[in-house]
């Protein structure tokens, strides 16, 4: 079906199953350890061999010699793959650095060899016997030192690298009140719970690969490109995924090596990555330097707003485009944004949860707070004064729906914003300085075409098949709910099969488009199945109702089970194809974050006390899993604000804190209380199911709200994330 | 991980006999650090002697009025022990500030003393590290050293000892009970148990080859306010940036030991004499020899402020 005009009333509006708080339908499998994740997909396989990846010990240079002779003789070793034995590989466009090093080394821990052995332990042990002689060359590892050599890329995610409206320079220099500040955000690791893992099986010329991947169809294409083989000969299966956050959007060395090793050894091969290897081998969210300039009139109306962003990537490819929120979020006649990128020889930079918008809002929303203070305005009033129903830099384009003001006001009421400390640094409880902060949450809600196949089986059960993935987000459940709603059956009667490339191609999980897009695909397929069922039942599909597991009209009612029994299995398949509604309307989700922190007056330790988010994201398909997405994103944003930092050793050229002891992410004790409120909402211009993305909204703005709360608590404005105690301690009140 | 021989000792005597007969031996108890290091081939023992079946898991009173804590007593059990909670609060608090619940269930008293540094360059075998490969250099000196030592450092190593428990034991002046293969037992004061890096950062304690920690002896309880304050970037499950163990008596001089500052739990009894003149005199003396980097100089301020606050609060409590 084509979706090119706003959705009208449709069966989803009944909300008998959809929008009801629903536990995950695959939950029992997960809590009993019976959900098979990629590395466990060897059940029933015989002769499975294990691969262990060897990564480069240097950041840049060439391999002069790679001596595998000792490793080859080690117990259990079956094969050792290197660039010398593998031959030429293709390179998928979605990969920046090559998956396989040799002889050139592009970054630290770039995969260089795979040892295949009878056991994992034997492979790991033999890997340490490989001796490599390198020729090091000089690399660039510091963003700060490479600002001057940075370039403006042709494009960044979602638009050009440079935009300009009106006369920014003129308006800024003539503004009554101005702000010009520079901020820094740190590099972040996805640090998902399940490391990348793959099991590959070759039979004749066919490759089956069980892997952990967010986008099955991308994986299929990119494996085909990498291995120079026809796509028809590959099957990718990824039914359960232990988190991705963007780190599993692209094929990695585990999949490549598993496939190559399985072909070479004629045995199924399992490959995973160790945790310390992931940080420098996999993509990461690039660190940024961002400059924001805001000019207003005396009343606080923005007359000029500018945002520049610098980040680095290998081959100066992927910009962490922090300017994105500034292009749209607030009104203002004169504006400019620019993203520039430096060429750094670190592991590749790429998408991580709300790319651009997350680090961009960490900065823009602090700048807004600083500006409000300079103006002597409440930061909520300042945002509302500059609220807009049209895109900031394109007033001809209205938002499909935007209830930011309501999110801010509702949050303020619920949180007790009125009682916040008016003067920074003055509220104290024992050893703790207390402060509150607010920020707007804003994330675009793109959609992608998505297909599904729906079956009514002979036994009257419903089966949904699509290559959509569930990366811990709750896709299984909302897809099941959609089919149950559309066909009028209980959720327990629906089986959902995900992640298999033999199924119709879905939107996949990324860019917070998964939920709205994939359920719309299921909706489309269900509409077709309804027609088929009506046809065999002899009813008019336009007027027939699907309730109580029956199809009925005013005079007849037939249980679906009876129809299936009589007419055999019925199958329908369809794709939702999104037209240009997103060109006419800017579809985005909105929210507000409210934070209360305590800052230890002696040590400067920052501890969260309360977190509240109010979100507007269209129809909430499953309040349980949507809340789960929000609080997870808020937690991740708290990590970015307070502790997460991929530290670059500029001498060696690598992320030095490359394990979970060195790269700290929030633990339970860091997140004491989280509340999420969803506005009752439908956005008919977004998708047939009237839902918008919510999975990335929650990380946008939360970091800034924390920074603003720290300022409110201490009177110290930290402009370099993460806000660790060493950045506060010298400005805290004297002890005693 | 290199292949190794596994021996399960039935008694302390048995463990010492096995260890005495082999070379390149490690005792293993909880294994919470050793196994990680073996996987990375930072530790490559040929023989592991598992002491889980020995009788070292008891806490008993000593004739001196203190406690003898068996080397196998888990961090969880020790922290929960009633006498420890009532009379050695600083130790209980330090233990509970360390690691996570799961780790504390496995980690033992003896093993905790022997855990190795968390310097990231020590853990990455591609990097130069004098502690891991003597003479290879120290990547941390000019690298990322935010959480490295500022006291007792050398130009070979600026790593810290990561334990919380050991800091409390240092402030208590505990003694480490050690048994040799010939059955001889000796007591090593905590002060002398861990060593400074000097020219030999790969040597971290004064245990001799084949010796085994059998217990830690605590002196009789020390009256006063017991404090263990651990300062860290996140609220739990993180190594200390700085930790402070303090016992502040009603009258007389307070005792302080510090974690996160040095290659060993740090206590400076000479500096403690300055406490009579106040907090600043003490921390000035304590930090007189501090050698800091751009990344870790904040630790000086952190120590000064934390000590001042602890003393001020103790004064308030007295008043």
UniProtKB/TrEMBL annotation, chain A:
InterPro entries: Ald_Oxase/Xan_DH_a/b, Ald_Oxase/Xan_DH_a/b_sf, Ald_Oxase/xanthine_DH-like, AldOxase/xan_DH_MoCoBD1, AldOxase/xan_DH_MoCoBD2, AldOxase/xan_DH_Mopterin-bd_sf, PaoC-like
Region of interest (Disordered), residue spans: 1-23
Gene Ontology terms for molecular function: iron ion binding; oxidoreductase activity
Highest taxon above the source species: Bacteria
Aldehyde oxidase/xanthine dehydrogenase a/b hammerhead domain sequence ranges: 32-138
Protein name from the UniProt record: Aldehyde oxidoreductase molybdenum-binding subunit PaoC
Organism: Halioxenophilus aromaticivorans
Source lineage: Bacteria, Pseudomonadati, Pseudomonadota, Gammaproteobacteria, Alteromonadales
Gene: paoC
Automatic annotation (TrEMBL), chain B:
Name of a matching Pfam family: FAD_binding_5
Superkingdom of this protein's organism: Bacteria
Protein name according to UniProt: Xanthine dehydrogenase family protein subunit M
Sample GO molecular function, one term: oxidoreductase activity
FAD-binding PCMH-type domain boundaries: 1-223
Gene3D superfamilies: 3.30.465.10, CO dehydrogenase flavoprotein, C-terminal domain (3.30.390.50), Uridine Diphospho-n-acetylenolpyruvylglucosamine Reductase, domain 2 (3.30.43.10)
InterPro entries in the cross-refs: CO_DH_flav_C, CO_DH_flav_C_dom_sf, Diverse_Substr_Oxidored, FAD-bd_PCMH, FAD-bd_PCMH-like_sf, FAD-bd_PCMH_sub1, FAD-bd_PCMH_sub2, Mopterin_DH_FAD-bd
Alphabetically ordered keywords of this record: FAD, Flavoprotein
